[in-house]
Write a structure and sequence with these properties.
- The chain has 17 helices and 50 strands.
- By secondary structure, it is α+β, with helices and mostly antiparallel strands.
- Among the domains are: 192 residues, no CATH class; 277 residues, no CATH class.
- The strands form nine sheets. The chain has a 20-stranded antiparallel β-sheet, with helices on both faces. A four-stranded antiparallel β-sheet has the order 21-50-49-48, with no helix packed on it.
- A hairpin with a 3-residue loop joins strand 19 and strand 20.
- Helix 11 packs antiparallel against helix 12.
- It is globular.
Amino acid sequence: MNKRLWIGVGAVMLLIGGWFGYRQVFPAVRTVGSLIPPGALLVLASDRLQDTVSARALRNEMSLRQIPVFDEARQRVDRFLYATADSATVLKFVEGRNIRYSLHSISKTTLDFIFYIPINDSDQPFLNLVTKPDPRQYRVLNHMFSGEKILDLVTRANDPVGSFILTDGFLIGSVSGILIENVAKRMHQSLKLAQTEPTFRVNSDNLAAVSVRPDVFQSLFSNVGSLVRLFLPEELNLQFRQSASPSHIIGYAVDQIGGRRDVAALFAGQAPRRIQHAYLIPQTTATLYHIGVSDARRFGRSLSQLLGSASSDFLRDRFDQIKPVARALYQSLGTDLMLCRMESPTGDLRQVMIITAQNGKQLANLYQQVAYKAGAKASAAPKSFLGHKLLLLNVSELPASLFSSLFSGFSQSWITQHGTSLLVANSEETMQDYLQQIQRGAIWTADQRQAELLNITLRPANFTAFVRLNRAHTAVPTTWPLAWQNLLDKADPTTGSAALANLENMAYQASYGNENIQSTVVLGRTTRRASRAVLNKLLLQKRTVFNAPLISAPIVTGSLSDSLSQFYAQSNAGEFVLVTPEGDKIVQSRTDGPIRSNALGVDFLNNGRLQYLFMTDRTLYIADPARSRKTVSLQSIPLPKGIDVTYLARPHGSQQRNLIALFAHEDGHIYALDRQRRTFVQLIMAPRKGPLQLPFQVITTPTGMDVLAIQADGTLNHWHENGRQYPHFPARIERTNEEEPEVHFTGTALLPPGQTMIQTITEEGQLIALNSNGLIAKRTQLYRPVRRASFRLFPDEDQTNWLILRASDTELTVLDQQGQRRFDVRALQSGRNNIRYHRLGAGVELISVKSGGYTTLYDMNGRIIGDRPIPGEFPVALQFDERSNEVYILSGAKQAVQLFSIRLR
């Protein structure tokens, strides 16, 4: 009897164990993790992503729905659910539900989502709407796959809306039928007994959770020219919360150190800290890398070990050269190492490294010693700019040799000392631009929102990588794989813009321990958004009335958006008037006629302030503002006979430290102003007499400065700074046969930055590309209407890019670089037209067309900017303030100067 009892008990236990084991492999109710097909790039969860958000909140706060990837996931669910029911019913259904979304690769260029909505018995009325939608608009088809019934929602025209599966616990759907079939296949696969999946905490504190696979990081950062990916953990499990600032959302994660022990060793003993020297970060910073140092000696030892075992042969060999001096340099470091990459209209690297120090002079000397150890030759005398001595150390990749490849991109080092910090720029022009921003206070700490980001939102960390999206040629997503670009560039049908347009700031911060990496991801924006009431409206900010008519356009000094901005004006009595920020009109001096040229800001007097150069018909004037900003002294130098008074150029890259401005002569020569002798010197002599087509181009080269200029008869000159022409120059552009009209040029020639072909166009519309030896590589005849119209190359004011302009007296057409029409402007006033191409930074490009007494602004697609034309007798001055997303316009009328603004975004 006992034996039978134990056999019975054993059989029952075996059945129970077998059933338990079977349910482990084939559970009756699967978890979400068991339904997600393998290979998900990321999985996110949120109970608030589908919520509606007011227009006012979207302007003032950062919402989950404005974040890329989150926004794309939301759109997929909205498109499906709103096809089946009205908005009130849908919102009631999704309220409070923790919906999960998984992202999968469908092909090399396509990514898409699967969504998993938890359901229960009380949801049957809504599910009936899903399975039986309005037959006048939609219908539901079905098919079997892997033993599961897959339903397909299509329109009456058989356009697919989405495919879905109904299980006991979930409504699972996707735009992609392939992905839903993968879910069906997954539902009939066995599971591991001990399956782990990320813990997603979604509650009142946590807005959303995201888990990202490590190889996704590798794909996103593999094309970026830095070592940022080495500072990232191998996996991220982020919990997103609202930050102290409503304009940003923060994701927190604690992940295992994994294969990042070398990086962790670099920060061993270094206490995480905030950025201490944020007042040295310029406003136009597009990308920022920051390393915090609390123990300089220990950091130097760790860095020496890292560089001594670097995988790069170049870095390892270079470090062997500089090691004797590097140790002392590391010991003198301060709290911050920062690399600022500034906006670049051309895509060129414009970067400044900021090395803080305990003793600035000592650090500068040690840095020079490192350069000489690395092979730098004795440099020329330093140049002066805004009270700083700029020294060229002509040795490549010096910052990377000292601080790892994260700081690469310095083909040479221009250095100067600023307070106790050493500044290192990769070009003279970059250094000058940086110092101008620092001088006028265009820095992060002077911007309330940026200061809030630094002091409240960003956390103390060992390492920070910060990117501002939508900056000209600096957006990180352009380096991402094509599949990600295709996903993120899709516009939201309800707003017409992609989610990337809503996001400005992306930051990753890390603190490294013995076992874990504590990560923080910051997403948001600092620029203000406009309400519909002011968007694209021309608003008058300030109006200054004069007693006498103006005879030239006002000269802008500093930032128009700054409350401390001032400008100069000129009346018909020859009075030179300073207009203060308070609106006071102070007559400073008199000029001998109207201003004919552009104004050039230069460090003429080497007194730590910018002076402004401009020309009348007979005289060059130098306006020097006083520190009090209440007066300006006006000095004059007579012009040599024959100087073209309409154009001043800056001698970027010149090795002659005293030359500060370039001028064209009617004979085709180039003159320069020597600030020390206060005289004009003939720098370049043209072999053929005849005026140059303005503007001529100044090109910075590793060895100095080049000048490119064309003359009306087709003579193309390409000079070195010493006046010698390049081999095969001057080149002569001639007609190809006798039947063609004589070649004539009314516009300039341009060698676009980063390109090798010189571009120009004849008056008759023959677009010509020449190679470096002056030979014509390509000719393209553009369409020319029957009416009289001439062509010219149309560069922007800084000569970083170009378009083509076809113009007659009363009409003009803007064409792209291939000669394709962009837009037309008609009904212009004959003889009273002026057109300019402005690249204002942050990706903002505008064209101003002045006709008669009004100026109209256009974007690159021909859409008018502003709700009405801008009144004014002279060409307007434009500036873009990226903090407020506003274009500021200074316009001179007959007896007034008016400051307008237009909110763009």
